[in-house]
Design goal:
four-stranded antiparallel sheet, about 300 residues, 4 strands
Length: about 300
């Protein structure tokens, strides 16, 4: 795999992980905050109902004898939390309700100041002392500055249709945002990967040309001042130094060769007349003698004397 492909995949994986993490955290925070808002609203409504109930009848027990709490809530709250046609029955600790079906966002259990159950829910009895873990989650309800009851949320929130519609819209928005972020990450990853790999690709081509064609003076374009730019600048300096050294070495070789040829010529010629000397004769005679022995050819030597040459 090429470096560009590796860089692109690395950028894509980083972007995808970031987009999914942001989307997941955003969705978790949305659900947490939404549930908290629903809980606070439900608690405020429940607290208002309990305060009105106790204020009207003087105490919870007195009110329970005269009018069940559910009947009081249905009679006094306008509009009700949720309603269904007549005939739907919702059994509860105060008895079945046949006129309306109330679905509160949260189900609350009511305790007195000592932690005994006043308004039971499934699994608890009236007068039973609630466990310590349940009492720690209780929130006080005060009338005239005095704590008259403790409200404990029980079970998960019961969302209304508008709440579910709102959450579905937010979920779609988050999904659309994550998908758009992923698509943008693909484009940005491809573009950035290509741009980051371009200088390295030029360096690779230059190194290949130096090794294949001997082009030691090859230069690359320095595009930035980062590590890749520093590497490109170092390559250019190295290439210039190698090219200069190559030229100097070539000139030195030519000089040495010329001097060697001159020394060779001086060693086989007489410096006064320029005629080949005894050394040249010995070299040529030895070569001709070897060739005659190798191929079986005759070898003839003619000697002439130049009078008064000395």
């Amino acid at each position: 795999m090429t470096l560009q492909g590796k860089l692109t995949i690395a950028l894509l994986l980083t972007s995808v992980a970031g987009a999914l993490t942001v989307g997941g955290v955003a969705y978790w925070m949305l659900m947490r905050d939404f549930r908290q808002i629903v809980f606070e609203q439900a608690f405020q409504n429940f607290q208002s109902d309990v305060k009105g109930y106790i204020s009207r009848y003087g105490s919870w027990e007195e009110g329970r004898q005269r009018e069940p709490f559910r009947e009081y809530v249905l009679r006094t709250r306008r509009p009700p939390l949720a309603s269904a046609p007549v005939g739907n029955r919702l059994p509860g600790p105060e008895g079945p309700v046949t006129r309306h079906r109330v679905e509160a966002p949260f189900l609350f259990m009511l305790l007195d100041a000592d932690g005994r159950v006043m308004k039971p829910v499934q699994g608890y009895r009236r007068g039973q002392t609630a466990p310590e873990g349940v009492r720690r989650r209780a929130r006080p309800i005060r009338v005239g500055g005095k704590v008259v009851a403790l409200a404990v949320p029980i079970s998960a929130p019961n969302l209304t249709s508008s709440d579910r519609f709102y959450l579905a819209a937010m979920r779609k928005s988050l999904i659309a945002g994550v998908v758009f972020a992923l698509a943008l990450a693909v484009v940005i990853g491809f573009v950035l990967g290509r741009r980051m790999a371009a200088p390295l690709h030029e360096l690779r081509q230059a190194l290949t040309a130096m090794g294949r064609d001997g082009d030691l003076g090859r230069q690359v374009l320095v595009r930035s001042g980062d590590e890749i730019g520093i590497l490109a600048n170092a390559f250019n300096e190295m290439s210039s130094a190698l090219s200069k050294a190559q030229k100097e070495l070539r000139q030195t070789n030519e000089t040495v060769q010329a001097q060697a040829d001159q020394l060779r010529d001086l060693s086989i010629r007489d410096p006064l007349t320029g005629i080949y000397n005894r050394r040249f004769f010995d070299e040529q005679a030895t070569t001709l003698h070897r060739q005659a022995l190798r191929y079986g050819h005759p070898l003839s030597v003619m000697i002439g004397d130049l009078d008064h040459f000395k």
